[in-house]
Design goal:
This protein has about 325 residues and is mainly alpha-helical. The chain is about 55% helix and about 5% strand. Helix 8 (about 155-170) links the parallel strand 4 (about 145) and strand 5 (about 180). Helix 4 packs across helix 7. Bound molecules: adenosine monophosphate (AMP) and tryptophan (TRP).
Length: about 325
């Protein structure tokens, strides 16, 4: 394989509910940044979403909504490849091939599987093999970099192990991908409990900011966000986890450093800080929502996804053909 000048970047987001400010800060902001310098592939991972039951009409709507949010967040479909995972059939095929390379033990150790299956009477087999499909998503494009939030680190490690295992058994083929995780903001925490990550699946809607929440709802959620009983706006995750989380959100939305945020509120207490924080979040989300509404109304997303899938499939199909040949499958062409 020739030396590529640009790095290849791939990431995915599940269409399994409302996207949150956590998805935006932890993942999408990095997607937008990387598209200017690297060759990017961003997909809506619907095959992953069905590892927990989804209502068909809701899945279809959410898939289109997440794709439109990618564009609304600033991903330029002329710079980056935007597509839906199930539109590129090779993902499911390589996913199966990788399932046969993974061991039960390593899948059982995945914390996302442990969290999602805890306390359930019946756990779907798809949830268990979820990481092998994710490895296929990444390796099928021979991606160098994978921008994700902190919670996906372990899945990336498994992806690297599977790539190495394949290379050892069947000859050097896959690039070993690196995670791309920001230092601040890789783990945006819940507004009501700084011990939990902000998540769209939290039953308390006050715990997360959805990208499609109305501005006044956002203001209310931030004013009610839990804080400690002190008054110092200081970034200290160990002792002041709630305020540190809010400072990190502030820094991302206002495009400021953590230190600059601290010094702006020196001696002012939490009131003015929270008020300004809400306005900074709204100033990011309001234009995003306007673009989102335009995109949904225009219907242009279908064209974007069709082109994206065609371009992605050209690469993905070649990888699967190479992999099958190396693994010893008889070619249908003889
Ligand atoms: P998911 O919604 O689980 O498909 O996650 C999509 C992307 O958003 C992944 O890269 C996650 O790591 C990232 N993400 C989700 N929630 C958060 C959060 N609270 N903080 C930072 N990143 C997050
Ligand atoms: N597992 C990821 C999540 O829940 C989503 C995902 C699927 C993904 N395939 C991927 C992320 C490939 C990065 C690369 O967030």
């Amino acid at each position: 394989m020739g030396q590529r000048l640009m790095k290849r970047v791939l990431s995915g987001i599940q269409p399994s509910g409302q996207l949150t400010l956590g998805n935006y800060i932890g993942a999408m902001q990095n997607f937008v940044k990387l598209q200017h310098t690297e060759e990017c592939f961003f997909m809506v991972v619907d095959l992953h979403a069905i590892t927990v039951p989804q209502e068909p009409a809701a899945l279809r709507e959410q898939t289109e909504a997440v794709a439109a949010l990618f564009i609304a967040a600033g991903i330029d479909p002329l710079k980056a490849n935007v597509f839906v995972q199930s539109h590129v059939r090779a993902h499911a095929e390589l996913g199966w091939l990788f399932t046969t390379l993974a061991n039960m033990g390593e899948l059982e150790r995945m914390t996302q599987f442990k969290d999602k299956s805890a306390g359930k009477d019946s756990v779907g087999a798809g949830l268990f093999v979820y990481p092998t499909l994710m490895a296929a998503d990444i390796l099928i494009y021979n991606a160098d970099l994978v921008p994700v939030g902190d919670d996906q680190k372990q899945h990336l490690e498994l992806t690297r192990d599977l790539a190495q295992r394949f290379n050892t058994r069947f000859g050097q083929y896959f690039t070993i991908p690196e995670p791309y995780i920001a230092k601040v903001g890789a783990r945006v925490m819940s507004l009501d409990d700084a011990g939990k990550k902000m998540s769209k699946s939290n039953p308390n809607a006050g715990s997360f900011i959805a990208l499609l929440d109305a501005p006044d709802v956002i203001r209310k959620k931030i004013s009610r966000a839990t804080t400690d009983s002190g008054r110092e706006v200081k970034y200290d995750p160990a002792n002041k986890p709630e305020i540190s989380n809010l400072i990190s959100i502030y820094a991302h939305c206002a495009n400021m450093t953590v230190e600059a945020v601290e010094s702006r509120y020196d001696g002012q207490g939490y009131g003015p800080f929270k008020k300004d924080l809400a306005e900074h979040v709204v100033s990011v989300i309001e234009p995003l929502q306007a673009r989102y509404n335009d995109i949904r109304q225009s219907g242009e997303i279908h064209q974007i996804l069709k082109r994206g899938a065609e371009q992605a499939a050209a690469i993905a199909d070649r990888t699967v053909a190479d992999v099958k040949e190396r693994m010893g499958f008889l070619s249908p062409r003889g």
